[in-house]
């Protein structure tokens, strides 16, 4: 049984945990902060092991794959150790995409992501399509893949989510615009931020 470790017990982390459990992974959730009560209840309901206010290395560094919540930067100690051990550290979007056959529309950009995503979702839904709304908005993509059965997904994708992409690529990709933002996560280099927005899957 493959071991899936999830760093971060928020919306994307809990959604990934549910999907991982459904797909037969040995799942463990670790959050250095405090997991909210509603998410604790869901994890307990699904009998998923979790911890908060710490990262127990012996329970994390034995993972086959790690899903890192987008708010966690790559330079925190536990992530550095995972990368040193060459354990794949991916995003929720990357993980969930392996278990969905739906057509996805990925929307990113410095400004206007949410408005464009909601408008696209509204148009498709009003057009009669069986469509879900996820990504950086609403219920997590992984959670919906685990529990819903949509034919299409409109995904709002932040640069932080795109940083954890390896193989996923949307069927339709939209970039609204790019302006300097979140540069503290990109070594204060605008070109690094731009590269994140144009994230391409790694060749197999």
Protein architecture, described:
The chain has 204 residues and is of the alpha/beta class. It folds into two domains: 3-90, 3-Layer(aba) Sandwich (Rossmann fold); 98-197, 3-Layer(aba) Sandwich (UDP-N-acetylmuramoyl-L-alanine:D-glutamate ligase). The chain contains nine helices and nine strands. It has helices at residues 11-22, 37-45, 57-60, 77-84, 92-97, 113-126, 141-147, 159-162, 190-197, and strands at residues 3-7, 26-31, 49-52, 65-68, 89-90, 103-108, 131-135, 152-156, 172-175. The strands form two sheets. Strands 3-2-1-4-5 form a five-stranded parallel beta sheet. It has a four-stranded parallel beta sheet with strand order 7-8-6-9, covered by helices on one side. Helix 4 (77-84) links the parallel strand 4 and strand 5 (89-90). The protein is globular. The model has no long low-confidence stretch (mean pLDDT 89).
Helix-strand layout with pairing:
Blueprint (H helix, E strand, L loop, with lengths): L2 E5 L3 H12 L3 E6 L5 H9 L3 E4 L4 H4 L4 E4 L8 H8 L4 E2 L1 H6 L5 E6 L4 H14 L4 E5 L5 H7 L4 E5 L2 H4 L9 E4 L14 H8 L7
Parallel strand pairs: 1-2, 1-4, 2-3, 4-5, 6-8, 6-9, 7-8
Helix pairs in contact: 1-7
Question: Which tags fit this structure?
Answer:
204 residues, alpha/beta, Rossmann fold, UDP-N-acetylmuramoyl-L-alanine:D-glutamate ligase, five-stranded parallel sheet, four-stranded parallel sheet, 35% helix
At a glance:
The protein is 35% helix and 20% strand.
């Amino acid at each position: 049984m493959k071991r899936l470790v999830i760093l971060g017990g928020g919306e994307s982390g809990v959604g990934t945990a549910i999907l991982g459990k459904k797909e037969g992974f040995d799942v463990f959730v670790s959050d250095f902060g405090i997991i909210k009560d509603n998410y604790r209840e869901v994890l307990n309901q699904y009998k998923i092991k979790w911890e908060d206010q710490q990262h127990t290395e012996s329970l994390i560094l034995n993972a086959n794959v790690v899903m890192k919540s987008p708010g966690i930067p790559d330079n925190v100690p536990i992530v550095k150790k995972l990368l040193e051990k060459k354990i794949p550290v991916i995003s929720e979007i990357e993980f969930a995409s392996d278990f969905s056959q739906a057509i996805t529309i990925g929307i990113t950009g410095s400004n206007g992501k949410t408005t464009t995503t909601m408008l696209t979702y509204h148009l498709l839904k009003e057009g009669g399509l069986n469509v879900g709304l996820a990504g950086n908005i609403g219920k997590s993509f992984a959670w919906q893949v685990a529990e819903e059965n949509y034919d299409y997904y409109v995904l709002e994708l932040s640069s932080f989510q795109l940083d954890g992409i390896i193989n996923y690529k949307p069927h339709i990709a939209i970039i609204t615009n790019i302006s300097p933002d979140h540069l503290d996560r990109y070594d204060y280099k605008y070109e690094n931020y731009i590269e994140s927005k144009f994230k391409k899957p790694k060749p197999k």
